[in-house]
Amino acid sequence: MLDIITYGSATLTEKAAPVTAFDAELATFIEELYEAMRRGRGVGLAAPQVDRSIRVFVTGVDNDKLRCFVNPEIIQTSPEEVDFEEGCLSLPGLYAMVKRPESIKVQAFNEKGRPFVLETGGFLARVILHEFDHLNGVLFVDRLPPHKRARALESYLKKVRM
After folding, report:
1. Is residue 91 part of a domain?
2. How many domains does the chain have?
3. Domain ranges, residue 81
């Protein structure tokens, strides 16, 4: 069973390595990632959040199927951006408004190594961008203006220490 790591863990700030083998070990890891996401009641989870620095994330957005993205690349984003409140399983209890592109085009591989391209917008696009950030060592609070980021992290750390 995979445990979700939290803010302060070094893996969350590292750029994850590409997946090179699409094997049974990867398939098992992806199933465990889905399970950890469900247990955490999240809508997405990236490998770095369970202390594995590889380029994999999963999504489980309402009204959409479970999706797995291996070695994803964002190949297009819309010029329109939207503010929306985000949270993160690695920063439990912290929420902030984050501006992200309204729609995206992403290319990736599935768990079997088959390539695919997905064009999507709205909440699913936001979740994909949020999880993609994790693969590059970026947390949603890193997208906030410096003063808001400092306040948000100060508030989070106070709650954690209680």
Report:
1. yes
2. 1
3. 10-161
Q: Is 131 a catalytic residue?
A: yes
| CA pseudo-torsion sign 4, 10, 15, 16 | negative
Query: What's the CA gap between 65 and 118, in Å, rounded?
Result: 13
Which one from 80, 85, 86, 131 is the annotated catalytic residue? 131
Residues 126-137 have pLDDT tens digits of 999 999 999 999
Tell me: the pLDDT tens digits for 71-95? 999 999 999 999 999 999 999 999 9
Read off the pLDDT of each residue in 133-145 and give the average, rounded to a whole number: 98
Give the CATH number for residue 90.
3.90.45.10
Residue 1 forms part of a structural domain: no
pLDDT, one tens digit per residue, over 52-67 is: 999 999 999 999 999 9
3 found inside a domain:
no
pTM to 2 decimal places: 0.96
